[in-house]
C-alpha cells in the first residue's frame, strides 16, 4: 500500500508541475528554477520539447545519483519520468485552457509558481522528487556549508537571470515571482506536522 501511495503522490505532483508549466508559465515565456527552468529556456530559444529537454538536462545529475546514492536515484527517477511525460501530454491542451481562462502574466507567474511548488512539495513530503537541482543541491551540501534550500534558491536565481538575459527583462521579473511563490508552496507542503 505504501508504494501505491508514493506512486499516486508522484503522479499528482507531476500533474501539478505539468499544469503549471503548460497553462501558466509557457504562454507568457515565464521560467521556473531548476532543470525545468533550463528546459524552458531551451524550449523558448530552440523549440525543443520541454519534457525531452528536462530528461536530457537531468541525465548528468541522475548519473551522479546512480554512482553516489542509489536510494535517491530510485526515489527520483519515477518523478522525473512522470513529470516529463505529463508535461508533453498536457502541452496540446494549452490552447483550450487559454481559450477559456484568461489571466495576466503576473497572476499567471504567481499561480504557476504556487502549483509548481505544490507539486514538488507534495513529492518531497512523501520522500520522492523529480531530481533536478534539488538532487544536485543535496550533493553540493556535502562540500558547501549552506542549507539545501539556499543552494536551490541560488541556482534558481542563476537560471532565471540567464533566462532574463536571453529572453527579456519581463521574463526575469515574472520568473522571480514564480520561484518565490513556488518556494512558499514547497515550504508549506514540507512543514513538519
Kindly describe this structure.
The protein has 193 residues and is mainly α. Helix content is 80%, strand content 0%. It contains nine helices and no strands. Helix 3 packs antiparallel against helix 4, helix 3 (50-68) runs parallel beside helix 7 and helix 6 (105-125) packs parallel to helix 9 (169-189). The longest helix is centred in the N-terminal third of the chain and has 24 residues, at 2-25. The radius of gyration is 16 Å and the shape is globular. The two termini are 22 Å apart. The relative contact order is 0.20. The model has no long low-confidence stretch (mean pLDDT 89).
Overall, the morphology is globular
- Distance from N terminus to C terminus (CA atoms, Å) equals 22 Å
Sheet with the most strands? Answer: none
Instruction: Name the structural class.
Output: mainly alpha
Radius of gyration equals: 16 Å
Please write the string of helix (H) and strand (E) elements.
Answer: HHHHHHHHH
Total number of helical segments? 9
Which percent bin holds the helix content?
Answer: over 70%
Per DSSP E runs of 2 or more residues, the count of β-strands stands at: 0
Fraction of residues in β-strands = under 5%
Uncertain spans: none
> Mean of residue pLDDT?
89
What are the key terms here?
single chain, 193 residues, mainly alpha, 80% helix, globular
Amino acid at each position: 500500500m505504501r508504494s501505491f501511495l508514493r506512486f499516486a503522490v508522484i503522479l499528482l505532483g507531476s500533474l501539478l508541475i505539468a499544469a503549471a508549466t503548460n497553462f501558466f508559465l509557457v504562454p507568457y515565456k515565464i521560467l521556473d528554477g531548476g532543470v525545468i527552468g533550463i528546459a524552458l529556456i531551451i524550449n523558448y530559444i530552440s523549440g525543443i520539447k520541454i519534457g525531452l529537454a528536462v530528461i536530457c538536462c537531468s541525465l548528468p545529475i541522475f548519473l551522479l545519483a546512480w554512482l553516489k546514492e542509489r536510494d535517491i536515484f530510485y526515489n527520483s527517477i519515477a518523478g522525473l519520468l512522470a513529470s516529463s511525460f505529463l508535461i508533453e501530454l498536457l502541452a496540446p491542451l494549452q490552447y483550450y485552457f487559454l481559450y477559456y481562462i484568461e489571466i495576466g502574466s503576473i497572476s499567471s507567474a504567481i499561480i504557476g509558481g504556487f502549483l509548481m511548488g505544490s507539486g514538488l512539495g507534495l513529492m518531497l513530503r512523501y520522500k520522492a522528487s523529480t531530481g533536478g537541482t534539488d538532487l544536485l543541491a543535496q550533493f553540493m551540501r556535502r562540500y558547501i556549508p549552506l542549507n539545501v534550500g539556499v543552494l536551490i534558491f541560488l541556482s534558481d536565481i542563476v537560471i532565471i537571470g540567464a533566462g532574463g538575459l536571453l529572453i527579456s527583462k519581463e521574463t526575469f521579473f515574472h520568473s522571480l515571482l514564480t520561484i518565490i511563490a513556488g518556494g512558499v508552496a514547497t515550504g508549506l507542503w514540507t512543514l513538519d506536522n
